[in-house]
Amino acid sequence: MSYRFVRGLRTALCASAALSILVSGATFAAPVKKIPAVDVPLMRQVIKTLSSDEFEGRAPSTPAEQKVLDEIVARFKAAGLQPGNKGSWLQDVPTVEITASNVSPMTVKGKDGTPMSFAIGKDFVAGSYRFVPQTRVKDSELVFVGYGINAPELGWNDYAGLDMKGKTAVILVNDPDYEMQGEDGPFKGRRMTYYGRWTYKFEEAARQGATAAIVIHDTFPAAYGWNVVESSWTGAQYFVQSANDGMDQTQANAWVQKPVAEAILKAAGQDLATLTAAAKHKGFKPVPLGLTMDLSFDNTIRKAMSHNVVGLMPGKKRPDEYVLYSAHWDHLGRCAPDKTGDDICNGAVDNATGVAALATLAKMNRKAGPAARSQVFLAVTLEESGTLGSEYYAANPIFPLAKTVGGVNMDGLSPTGRARDVTVTGGDKSELTTLLRKVEKDMHLSETPESHPERGYYYRSDHFSFAKLGVPMFDVGLGEDLEKGGRAAGEAASEDYTVNRYHQPSDEYSDSWDMTGMAQEVELFYRLGRGLADGNDWPNWHPTDEFRAIRDKSLAEAGKK
Ligand SMILES: [Zn+2]
Fold it and tell me: From ligand 1's centre to the CA of 350, what distance in Å?
């Protein structure tokens, strides 16, 4: 998913309290020396090849995959990289596809035992993250847990004092202060934190030992309509294989429409609006509803294998410290045919451009000579199925995450010409901002506020798989203030892409593409990556950031704190 075209952001730099000599106050003093030229013909060639009909839209675990892998490996070899996985260019990514069927109504029995029955699709969607043939939830007690957040660093726990075993959590989407205008609430106000993401809700309910979890859909806090929920939860769901076959997950995860939640709470003698207001306050206590839920369905399970491609440029001074560049190579494959009958979603912008940037950055770094630290070039699979390739790498890192200083993810570069600004998705989360500010100054670029911080875009692409486990990651790109035509032209180009080409057969390459913006963007990524790779800083998340605790822990375990 590339949303590069619809965003922007203003960030306030906050100095993080000094931790220890090794990891505090990243200054990025090492100047980035001469910038090698961006090989635009190479970029065009890689994009043209990967987005050609011959590659059939690059769906993972299809015949097209081998062609994609061969192309990327050839480009990495030509750029002078070494195989990154113990002599191999590839990392296996074993996947599981689960398709639910025979889904029963969701039945909720009231105190007086009269059942309320809700229909799949119209009222609710559900699936299991456990790789089991049958899901059978019976008489599971419902508990309203507010926003379902356990944030020790904020002294906030909506599950405090509650044993969730055998029970079903009923959870609000987004975080408690999302209705604020500014960003200075406990959960960053209008900006969605990871605690607000539906994925977090299910993860935390599972950590609490819940049998099932139900997220209440509401269009504004969810940042999309029920149609998006219904379509993305219908059909096959993809997961990376795990040693325990997902048995640490709940038995069933579900979304319900808001009116369904209102009806359930009414049957419990409660009111959704009143409970929601209470849930916004620290110290909120979960509310057992005195109702039970039944839900059952079958699961068809299919295992498959896809691959990440890993290239390495060893560092000359501190080769056991790593900087990460990532971009997903996969796209949708064959999709709904357009009116011309074309059914290949070529994925030129999304994300042949990112893979082309990887190959070009590798070539630029070879020209510049090895950096102090090692640089890892990672083309990941299965981003379109939920950032699974990057998730798998982060869970099975070839290079230790605690030795990974930071990195840059590239998803959807824009063929719309040079820009005067950059946007940073996610806001000012870490000391990486110090380096970014230096690079902006050197490239005479300004910064534009992210237009939809409430949508939580930072949590929706591959950098997040690494950030979630503590690695500080950039998610930046050119803004919409184009040199030719200004903001109006930039916004029009974004709108045109989002409406007419995003995830459609028309996302195709053209020789008429203006590549000057992409070259500018690759230079930006080069300066950020090289700034990390030639320096000896260990940028950390800001003290209040949701990923600070896990980074401090992994650095401590690696003896870096
Ligand atoms: Zn993408």
Answer: 5
